[in-house]
Specification:
- InterPro entries: 5'-Nucleotdase_C (IPR008334), 5'-Nucleotdase_C_sf (IPR036907), 5_nucleotidase/apyrase (IPR006179), Calcineurin-like_PHP (IPR004843), Cell_wall-bd_2 (IPR007253), Metallo-depent_PP-like (IPR029052).
- By secondary structure, the protein is α/β, with parallel strands linked by helices.
- It folds into four domains: 354 residues, 4-Layer Sandwich (Purple Acid Phosphatase, chain A, domain 2); 205 residues, 5'-Nucleotidase, C-terminal domain (5'-nucleotidase,  domain 2), CATH 3.90.780.10; 86 residues, Immunoglobulin-like (Sandwich), CATH 2.60.40; 293 residues, no CATH class.
- 28% of the residues lie in helices and 25% in strands.
- The protein contains 26 helices and 47 strands.
- It has a seven-stranded mixed sheet with strand order 1-8-9-11-12-14-13. It has a six-stranded mixed sheet with strand order 5-4-3-2-15-16, with helices on one face.
- Strand 13 and strand 14 form a beta hairpin.
- Helix 15 runs parallel beside helix 17 and helix 16 runs parallel beside helix 19.
- The two termini are 75 Å apart.
């Protein structure tokens, strides 16, 4: 326990502050802003002067802060005043204090004769040994932490008592301190090994009970004050009306168990409460708890950084220890000239000397080397002027990367994205050696500190994809009143894993046209942990969208210190001249047909930071394909191309030689559908229902277990306007019989002899009510059967497709092509000459052209020679593999665009057999593919075809989800 007795110090004339006061709901508070209020018949005046979260503000405002303390002291006199702190006086400090391990700040507080301070989480930044050793030894005031123990023992004092007043009027004031229970997540765990942080309210209550139990041997107090380094997240104007404060802080209690416990669970023996940690401003006269003899219990917090102080004036009856409150207010930092403050107040004069010496020493330390760069890293420039806040910069990227990387560890917030405001970037890192430097590329401590001089605390928050889009939209500025400010656009700095496109010609609120994080396009309901300085988290620079984030976490780091550590760890650092955002004007919003021309204008292609290469060309890539290279003129380019086939995993990307690689999204008109049954028979039925919803006069039926007959049936069925259905050898599946009946077909053509389809199956088909005629086309072998089918269906044809009877893949695409051209498909044996019966049939049909489906390996050259010798014009359609052959066959028969294309497996035939007939009938090609990806040659042909609809014939695993997404095999 510490007992500190007030003593009188010489002081000059007081300067009245004269600010508005707060009036308690049921107790009249003083309305006089200044002047002494001596002890009267009702008790002794205690003037409590509070601040919190000073964070080492050693700068041009330090003297004014000290002057404000002294002005408030002078109002009631030294003997009746206590100056107390809510913690975080050190840590997350400005450069001048931080580089000297906050010694100047402690010296300033000593000079001000700070009576006591709660411990804040930042007091533990350098570890418990530093706090209990160096800090305690330097500080003339106790640092109180009633809820913190080390290896089971208190880390220091829990409270301090002070005698205020003289003689019989003297009262004892106790200040109990407690630190946020979240401290372990806010500091380096290795520095606080063995330290436990308990419930702050329970700890305060235990001490308060001791101080009011009537036992003088363990300490007693007339007025008990709790200094909690914990508080509310509620944004209020200083000295807001009590009803506003009550509403906002009651709501804050619902959002924070910690603050609720402070308000509701702090024991009635505690007469007044001061807060810290959350950097908010309030002076709430909360209702006194049950058991208290007061009408109200003040709860006060004073923002941060010495910008405000809190004043609570109490009158305590020495006989009864009952307190009343005469004044509770927030006081802004004084505007009195510093020379006058120094001349008036000796303590301020001492503070001024300490501050000046600290700034001078910081300048010396600032010359020490910290890291290295390989080139200038700067803000955006306009001509020779720095700090163009409307443009992206190499410095913005570096700082945003630092935010993301330094706050990426889970105990720092788990950041995935870094965002910084351009106005926070206050200096450049120049490669050329500066004053006092002997080498180019050296970054000194002072140079790094000058970039981020505001000592913002670094926070993480969770944003949805939609909230991130809103934040980016707010770069086009509106103030809280909805007006456009003088800086109409502010460019946020983004970490290098974030890209976006925009179009400034679109309506406000809809200018962001796409966002990507780590290469993936952002969806509205995606979530990201975002690292930002506290300035932005509170909605600074009109980025109010960040206030909507959830799970806000203080990393315990300050920007300047984190930046210095980052430069030291990452050196040497090179400037990143790539852009993360491009204006792309003219992006289509409606789906664009494959192959349709697209024209875009791309603006602001290059950064304007020093050293940025000037782009002369802009490349447009789609996946691995270069769609074009376009000249850049005056930082702008016109990009013209034809819409490609949309392929899974591929994206449009605009690239420059300086490393820019920004994607954009554009809808391409392609509907992918799938026809698949539980087996090959049901799949054929689905194909039939899709192609012939209104019925068909004829149906071709072939074996579903053998492919040759169904191959040749496809073009014939297409010619006659009917589908191909598949059946089993011994019986027709019920679903097939039902489909024939639905179609209302009067004629059914069975392709194949009884070894392929039994007489029993034929009888089942004949028994269908609509069927009037059943014809069977069955030859001595598959080659004979193919001739019978051609002779049966075709009265004439200009040509014919020929395929090997022992291989199905080539025949699948050939069947669709034949159906489209109204040609038959004939099968040939690869081991014998072309039969005379085949050439005779072709002569009878009037065909003079032969297209051979397959390479010379599939259909030997001797077969082609036989047709040539017979007087036919022969073209071979064969590629390096079955997929290339499929593409070549399709390209030979179909001009683009087509309305539809079919895609079937090139490894298993059943699903594709019915698809070929339907495709041919609809003048649509059928291409084949692998089961798990699409060969690039097939993708190229699909792109050429420019079809708006792609129909997959067959389910998984015949055609996987990757195939449906057109995933390239390459």
């Amino acid at each position: 326990m510490n007992n500190h007795f007030k003593r009188n110090l010489a002081a000059g004339a007081a300067c009245a502050v004269g600010l508005g006061l707060l009036v308690a709901p049921s107790a009249a508070l003083a309305t006089d802003g200044g002047g002494d209020t001596p002890a009267d018949a009702h008790g002794t005046v205690v003037n409590l002067i509070h601040f919190n979260d000073f964070h080492g503000r050693i700068d041009s405002n330090t003297v004014s802060f000290a002057g404000t303390v002294e002005q408030l002291r002078a109002e009631q006199g030294d003997a009746n005043s206590l100056v107390i702190s809510g913690g975080d006086s050190i840590g997350a400090s400005l450069y001048a204090s931080a580089v000297q391990q906050d010694a100047p700040t402690i010296d300033v507080l000593n000079a001000l004769e700070l009576e006591a301070s709660a411990a804040g989480n930042h007091e533990f930044d350098r570890g418990i040994d530093d706090l209990q050793g160096r800090v305690d030894e330097r500080a003339d005031f106790p640092i109180l932490a009633a809820n913190a123990t080390r290896d089971g023992a208190p880390i220091g004092d829990s409270y301090a008592t002070f005698s205020v007043g003289e003689g019989d009027d003297a009262v004892t004031v106790a200040v109990i301190g407690a630190v946020t229970e979240e401290t372990p997540s806010l500091v380096d765990p290795s520095g606080i090994a063995g330290v436990e942080f308990g419930d702050p309210v329970a700890a305060v209550n235990a001490v308060a009970a001791q101080l009011s139990d009537g036992d003088a041997t363990n300490g007693e107090a007339d007025l008990i004050v709790a200094e909690y380094h914990e508080g509310a997240q509620a944004t209020l104007a200083p000295n807001a009306p009590q009803e506003e404060q009550a509403a906002a802080l009651t709501a804050a209690m619902a959002d924070s168990d910690a603050f609720r416990a402070i308000v509701e669970d702090t024991a009635p023996e505690v007469d007044a409460i001061f807060n810290g940690h959350t950097h908010q401003s309030y002076s709430w006269l909360a209702p006194a708890p049950d058991g208290s003899e007061q009408d109200v219990r003040p709860i006060i917090q004073t923002s941060s950084y010495g910008a405000q102080l809190g004043q609570l004036v109490a009158t305590v009856d020495p006989a009864t220890s009952v307190a009343s409150f005469d004044l509770a207010r927030i006081v802004p930092r004084t505007q009195t000239p510093q020379d006058e403050l120094i001349a008036t107040y000796p303590r301020v004069a001492a503070v001024a000397e300490i501050t000046e010496a600290a700034l001078e020493q910081a300048a010396v330390i600032g010359q020490e080397p910290l890291g290295e760069i390989t080139g200038d890293i700067t803000t955006a420039f306009t001509a020779d002027e720095r700090d163009d806040r409307g443009s992206a910069s190499t410095m913005g990227t570096l700082v945003a990367n630092m935010l993301r990387d330094q706050l990426a560890p889970e105990n720092r917030g788990g950041a995935e994205i870094g965002i910084t405001n351009p106005g926070g970037l206050r200096a450049e890192l120049l490669y050329e050696a500066g004053e006092g430097e002997t080498e180019d590329g050296i970054v000194t401590v002072g140079e790094a500190a000058a970039v981020l001089p505001f000592a913002n605390n670094l926070w993480t928050t969770t944003l949805t994809g939609e909230q991130l889009r809103v934040v980016l939209e707010q770069q086009w500025q509106r103030n809280a009143a909805g007006e456009v400010p003088s800086r109409a656009y502010l460019q946020l700095g983004l970490s290098d894993n974030v890209e976006y496109t925009y179009d400034s010609t679109l309506a406000e609120g809809s200018r962001i046209t796409g966002i990507w994080v780590d290469g993936a396009e952002v969806a509205a309901d995606d979530t990201y942990r975002v690292a930002v300085p506290s300035f932005l988290l509170s909605g600074g620079d009109n980025f109010r969208g960040l206030i909507a984030g959830t799970d806000d976490r203080d990393s315990g780091l300050v920007d300047s210190e984190a930046f210095a550590a980052y430069i030291e760890a990452q050196s040497p650092i090179s400037p990143d001249f790539s852009r993360r955002q491009l204006e792309v004007v003219g992006l289509p919003t409606a789906p664009v047909a494959i192959g349709a021309p697209v024209s875009l204008t791309v603006n602001e292609i290059d950064l304007t930071s020093l050293g940025t290469p000037v782009s002369t060309e802009l490349e447009l890539h789609y996946g691995d394909e270069l769609l074009g290279t376009f000249p850049v003129v005056d930082d702008s380019a016109t990009v013209e191309f034809e819409a490609p086939l949309p392929v899974a995993g591929d994206r449009f990307e605009l690239r420059t030689a300086s490393g820019t690689a920004v994607p954009f999204s554009m809808p391409i008109a392609l509907t992918t559908e799938r026809l698949d049954g539980v087996n090959r028979y049901e799949t054929a039925v689905q194909v039939s229902q899709d192609a012939y919803p209104g019925g068909a006069p004829v149906v071709y039926v072939a074996s579903g277990q053998l492919f040759p007959d169904a191959l040749t049936a496809g073009p014939a069925a297409a010619h006659e306007g009917g589908p191909v259905l598949l059946t089993r050898l011994t019986e027709a599946p019920e679903v097939v019989l039902d489909e024939i009946e639905r179609l209302g077909a009067a004629r059914v053509v069975i392709v194949g002899g009884e070894p392929s389809i039994s007489a029993e199956t034929e009888a089942q088909i004949a028994a269908i009510a609509s069927v009037e005629q059943v014809d069977r086309l069955g030859g001595s072998d598959r080659y004979h059967t193919s001739r019978l089918v051609a002779e049966y269906a075709f009265e004439g044809a200009e040509g014919a497709y020929v395929a090997a009877g022992t291989r199905f893949p080539d025949g699948l695409s050939a069947g669709a092509a034949a159906g489209h051209l109204d040609w038959p498909l004939l099968l040939v044996s690869t081991s014998t000459e072309v039969p005379e019966a085949t050439t005779a049939l072709l002569d009878e049909l009037g065909a003079d052209r032969i297209r051979i489906a397959g390479s010379a390996e599939a259909v030997p050259s001797s077969i082609a020679g036989d047709f040539v010798d017979a007087g036919f014009t022969v073209n071979r359609l064969g590629g390096s593999d079955r997929y290339a052959t499929s593409a070549i066959i399709t390209a030979s028969a179909f001009d683009a665009p087509v309305e539809r294309a079919y895609l079937a497996s090139g490894l298993v035939f059943p699903d594709a057999l019915a698809g070929g007939a339907a495709a041919g009938a609809q003048d649509a090609p059928l291409l084949i593919t692998r089961t798990d990806c699409v060969p690039q040659r097939i993708l190229d042909e699909l792109e050429r075809l420019q079809m708006p609809t792609l129909t997959l014939v067959g389910g998984e695993p015949s055609l996987s989800a990757e195939v449906a997404a057109l995933t390239s095999c390459s």
